[in-house]
Amino acid sequence: MARTLTLPAIQIRAPGRRVALKNTLVHLVLLASVVVVLLPYYLMISTSLKPIQEIFTDPFQWLPSRLAWENYVDAWNHAPFGRYFLNSTFISVTETLGVLVTSALAGYAFSRMRFWGREVFFVIFLGTLMVPGEVQLVPNYITIVRLGWLNTYYALIIPWLASVFGIFFMRQFFATIPQELQDAATMDGASHWTFLWRVVVPLSKPAFITVGLLSFLGSWNALTWPLIVTNTPEMRPIMVGLLSFSNEWGTQPRLLMAAATFSVAPILVLFFILQRYFIQGIARAGIKF
Amino acid sequence: MQVGRRGFLRIAAAVLLLTASLILPAGAGGPVTITFWHGMSGVLNPAIDELTNDFNKLNPGIVVNAQYQGTYGTLNQKLVAAVAAGSPPTITQLFPNWADQLIQAKAIVPMENFIKGPDGLSAEELSDIFPILRQESTFNGVMWTMPFNKSLYILFYNEDLFKQNNLKPPATWDDLLNVSKALTKEEGGRTTRYGFVVRPTTDYFLLMLITNGGDFLKPGGKEVAFNSPAGVEGLQFLIDLVQKQKVAYVLNAFADADFAAGKVAMYFVTNPGLAFARAAVAGRFEIGIAPIPYKKSRATLLSGTDVAIMAKAAPEQQAAAWKYIKFVTGTTATTRWFMKTFYMPVRRSARDSTLARVYLQQNPEHRAGLDSLAVARTAPNIAEWQEIRDIIQEAVEEAVLGKKTAKQALDDAAVKANKLLSQRK
Amino acid sequence: MPALEAASGPGVIPRVPSRRVRRLLENLEAYAFLLPAIVVLGVFHLFPIVFAFFISLLKWNMIDPVRPYVGLANYVQALQDDKFRTALGNTTYYAFVSVGLAIPLALFFAVLLNRKLRGMSWYRTAFFIPHVTSLAAAAMVWHWLYNPDQFGLLNYLLDKVGIPPQRWLLDPLQAMPAIIAVSIWSSLGRDIVIFLAGLQSISQDYYEAAQIDGANNWQLFRHVTWPLLSPTTYFILIISMIGAFKIFALPLFLTGGGPISKTLTIVYSIYQQGFQYFRMGYASAQAYTLFAIIFLITMLQRRVLAHRVHYDI
After folding, report:
1. Bridge-partner residues for B139, per DSSP?
2. H helices of B211-314, where?
3. Rounded CA separation B18/B11 (Å)
């Protein structure tokens, strides 16, 4: 059936009252939903600022009578949170840098170099994505113990210095670089190395930001592996630190909520600043597959 | 400055020697350094540090590093990993069932070697250690570990509340029921205070089991005996307190917070719990201590850890470790330990010492715990017991929550436990 | 880009290496690029997959020097083990309910947010915040929210509508649904964002054409949006299912696997067997079983759903 591409009358019609009502409804639904979604954050912050006698009240008290900042001081002092943050920052930054470098290198090789076994290697790498990480928990733990790396930064960082997702993502992105650019660079005598770092990387900022952010987020929020390879407070990243904190001080919500607040704050701040990239990154990750 | 060839060689040699002396382990002249891994947190940590510092001062040739490894669960994980990696500490704190595992793996040295050795304990000194404690350290007739911080279960009660209501601490199960009834208070349709609290834990159940004449294992040790009629009756008693008489409630957490808040009048706990209870109560009322109420036989459950010397340690380190262990389990040290941490003193002479007597006069509440030592029972010190405890725990939970009858829950648990036992080498 | 003068300068005879040598060098260079990734992934991701399988064939208690080969005994034991079966059941229940609720919900909100109204990006941000919040912190807050006494916020709100306080995480029947709620809350933002991207990638032409044909909103959705969104839906379905079967952090933080193992999941069981009881062989067998399950489910999804996915030409 042939269709003409004239704009139908429907679209020119200005939004009438029915549409306006619908929009209001949509706003209401969304607003109500957001209130529900953000309710835990309200609880977290309000409890963290309540003096101890206002926490276990019947009925529930919505707002503290005064801002009990001492909860934050107490929580901070009850466990080495400074150390936890330091660990998490060091681990996450190192891992992210590592992933970016290894992913760029490998992604470049897969997309712009020809070598024997390219497809084979790629399929093998991709295959590891199918396997749940839990399969590797026990053998990796044994490896770490045998290397004497238990409870060290080596154990926390080295296994995660490369990421198949990162490699795949970079490869997809690098593949879109026009061949002409590479040919021109080759004629100018540039090596692959030079081409990668001088041309490809600057052109791939979105990919780097995406992989970097997702990698950082994954590393910061990691739990299972850090849980089993760390045993002392000195080595714990923030997630594991929070777990042990909640085991010890579970009876004091004011402390728990304060700890939760200052643990979550850095990532939330980072998120608000880099919102656009976070969301674009997740969206791209979904679309690329 | 010109350094000629000879001069250079001399300097190089000096640097090499200096470096070597720093890196290479101390020879016959240097102190022997040993590590002691423990899981004592809170107020216990400085207490063990104090003891350790005293020992180090008295023994200039030995340096003991007491290292807190986290909760006992973490300590166990670290220990196993360290043994597997070949880098364990010199001394470790451990529960009897961990010891069994380590013995099978040949990872620890029998304490008996040192007790009977040249620097050991005389027969008197050995028998001075409470027999029940020695029993928990003995595997197949050989004493492998040394009791260190041992505790047992007692009843804490709100002394002020009892005095107000003219009540005496309960001696029997019936007393427990009656006192709970008297102290349970209702206001406006809701219960504001319970007489007792039931924590659905293995220990709460085991206490009822042994005070009713029950046993952990059948003679021969191949099958469990906790699902005997005595055990079922004990579990049912707890359930009834909650469901039928409604004088107790179920709590899945430590009870000291509720106790301090006046929500419950009594609870079962081990001696070191006194420190936590006192912190929570903060002087609002007096905390009374009484033995566990019994039905058929007075009894209480022994708890706490021992210490062991690891096999991987060098001979001189092992010898130093023994010296340290002798010290911290000596009469003076164990008396001080008792007064500071409320763990039981491990020696009779410590309990009967002047220091202890004076302390008890000023703090008579501790008598109940010390007296209970005479009727303390030890759970089986086999490696499988840890997992059997978890099995019992789940059974208790199921019964308390009403998912299964007490008999059903315990019988099912017995089947699982027996299966574990049958796999025992 | 600096020109390569030396090659064409006077007096310089460029030495061109033979083709074979050049090929070899290129290969070596490529391998050099791959080396860091290969080392890390090889040691910690590929090798363990094989190693884990061998471990699963042994009876290995971490410190015991004796590690007998027991063939498939661990697998047989796992399938007969009450606790593991419970974990299997719990995890399946969790996976199907949480994914079954999360996806329609995310789609619903994505469709709403796709309208060109003011403030949409604020809503989207709000939904997304839980996704960047670490599960540890989130669990701590939800644990407090779910407080079983009258002090909990949730019970307080229920009281306002006349419902008595619930035990939530302590109730055998409510514990898993409670965890499912937290899980949906946590991943909703991510799913919404992916759906949004998928929705926005549908060309307006289709909508215009359908509207010309007189389609109403529901028909638009059913005949334009839904089919063209199917690659995205399929993608979210797969990754959500895989992720759901690996659930561990939430039960660890919120319930400790209880009450009475009602929230014990497969990974939790692996963790217990491997890192609390140190049964390395048994834990590995359970892990491989998980792998098999995930593989099966993914293949099943492919078989059933792949042909329904419409790809944009």
Report:
1. B142
2. 229-243, 256-260, 273-281
3. 10
Secondary structure (DSSP) of C179-247: HHHHHHHHHHHHHHHHHHHHHHTS-HHHHHHHHHTT--HHHHIIIIIHHHHHHHHHHHHHHHHHHHHT-
Task: Name the nearest CA neighbour of C137 among A134, A83, A75.
Answer: A75
Residue C81's closest chain B neighbor by CA? B416
Statement: residue A158 has pLDDT above 60: yes
State the nearest Cα–Cα gap between A222 and chain C, in angstroms: 8
Best of A134, A220, A270 to mutate (most C CBs within 10 Å, chain C): A134
> B414 with B378: CB under 8 angstroms?
no
What ipTM goes with this model?
0.83
Can you give the pTM of this predicted structure?
0.81
C63 to B401: CB separation less than 8 angstroms, yes or no: no
Rg (CA), chain B: 25
The β-bridge relationship of strands B190-198 and B185-187 is antiparallel
Please count the other Cβ atoms lying within 10 Å of the Cβ belonging to residue C171: 16
- Residue C10 is predicted with a pLDDT of 57
CA distance B78 to B65: 17
| Length reported for chain A | 289
pLDDT score recorded for residue B3? 43
pLDDT-based confidence at B16, cuts 50/70/90?
A: low
Dihedral, CA of residue A219, residue A224, residue A226 and residue A227, to nearest 10: 150
- Tokens for B156? 């804490």
Q: Which residues of B touch A231 (CB under 8 A)?
A: 69-70, 74, 77-78, 81
Residues C269, B89: Cα–Cα separation, whole Å: 29
Query: Cβ separation of A228 and C185 shorter than 8 Å?
Result: no
Q: Which residues of C touch B386 (CB under 8 A)?
A: 277
Compute the count of residue pairs across chains B and C with CB atoms less than 8 Å apart. 36
